[in-house]
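Per your request, structure below.
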């Protein structure tokens, strides 16, 4: 991008200042060009239309969890290929590539941390690893995290940003829904609050089935939600799906989610919910 500035001389020499392109972002919703530093200060939301840009796992942890309080657990679990699945390449090879590309070990990070001094178990699905798909390793991490919540009687908060179930694990991946539904029921029976946060996109059988287990379901504005992504539905049906794919406001208006919360108010809202629940 090029900016022009006027020199102080009477000859009105125009000076060209080259601005590196990487300093600017274009809002995909309203086409506004935004200085990335300003976007960052606004928590990656558009000044003009409030479009919520996708942010990383670590940025969400920094946004929601008090500084220096997050302690990840269950970090040494390893994925296995129980059915020796091979599509265009072996599943284990695909996992290795995802690790190298994303610099994460799998598609979920779980641990304990504080939200305005409330101790919580916090999990976050990592869409940079195999599109956030959930295999048996990831669901085992969720299971153990919910178990930790129950044993220590602290709230469970899970942030979703994910795609389909892990197709390379076939039925084993789908069976995890039953396993997790059981532990979520136990959490509910123990009277411990479970908060689901849905971000762009939360689609796919496993993710959506788990997200609705929350006592309070929050979504960021404009998030695509549903049992399947638009591209996946188009592939399966061989038909073009309308661009008006349901967003979080549709699910809020039909009563399937409880709150649509601006990213800037996400942390305070969760804290208020925990305060309210503890009264
Ligand atoms: Zn915008």
């Amino acid at each position: 991008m090029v900016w022009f500035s006027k020199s102080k001389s009477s000859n009105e020499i125009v000076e060209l200042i080259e601005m590196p392109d990487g300093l600017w972002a274009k809002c995909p919703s309203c086409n506004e060009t935004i200085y990335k530093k300003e976007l960052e200060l606004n928590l990656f939301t558009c000044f003009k239309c409030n479009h919520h840009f996708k942010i990383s796992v670590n940025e969400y942890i920094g946004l929601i969890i008090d500084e220096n309080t997050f302690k990840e657990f269950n970090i040494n679990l390893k994925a296995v290929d129980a059915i020796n699945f091979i599509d265009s390449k072996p599943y284990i090879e695909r996992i290795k590539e995802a690790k190298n590309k994303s610099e994460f070990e799998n598609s979920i990070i779980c641990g304990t941390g504080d939200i305005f001094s409330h101790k919580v178990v916090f999990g976050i699905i990592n869409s940079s690893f195999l599109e956030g798909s959930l295999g048996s390793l990831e669901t085992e991490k969720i299971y153990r995290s919910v178990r930790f919540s129950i044993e220590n009687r602290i709230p469970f908060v899970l942030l979703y940003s994910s795609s389909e179930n892990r197709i390379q694990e076939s039925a084993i991946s789908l069976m995890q829904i039953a396993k997790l539904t059981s532990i979520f029921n136990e959490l509910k029976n123990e009277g411990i609050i479970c908060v689901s946060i849905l971000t762009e996109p939360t689609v796919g059988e496993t993710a959506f089935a788990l997200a609705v287990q929350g006592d309070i379901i929050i979504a960021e504005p404009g998030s695509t939600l549903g049992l399947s992504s638009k591209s996946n539905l188009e592939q399966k049906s061989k038909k073009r799906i309308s661009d008006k794919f349901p967003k979080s406001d549709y699910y809020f208006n039909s009563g399937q989610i409880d709150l649509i919360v601006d990213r800037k108010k996400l942390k305070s809202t969760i804290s208020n919910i925990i305060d309210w629940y503890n009264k």
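The domain at 55-278 is CATH 3.90.226.10 (2-enoyl-CoA Hydratase; Chain A, domain 1).

Regards,
D.
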